[in-house]
Amino acid sequence: MRTRLIVALASALLGVATIVGVALATAPSGVTSTTFAVGHFNEIYAKTISSSWQARISTKGASDLYVLENRIAVGGSFGWHSHPGPSLVIVKSGALTLYRGDDPTCTPEVVPAGSGFVDDGGDVHLVRNEGSVETVVYVTSLVPEGATRRIDVPAPGNCAF
Fold it and tell me: CB 62: neighbour CB atoms within 10 A?
């Protein structure tokens, strides 16, 4: 009987250690996404230069370009995630609060309507609607051909949520 009790206790502890040791991805909530278009491109080399402005887009290998709309309900969150390539994000209405996984202070960055930000890709971040109205954003993402545009990741542990 004592041997069975020890085996049962050891099994239970092992099971708890296994559950605790598994890092779970954080899923989005309160987010509705609509993909407007996906385009496939061979290597891109575009350059525009004027006397007061310049832009360059350069890829090595084929790419997929996504254009989408995200609607985030009050209190909604994208969950912790990353992207394999850059995204240009425009906030049409409401505001987003952005948290970066590599920020040890978990300092929020609020992006109001009419503004935007560039996600370089490869970084872990979480975006939430901490405002009082639905937030609408438009996103254009450039990723390697065939890659998943969004990669869910476990919370990095730098924020209390």
Answer: 13
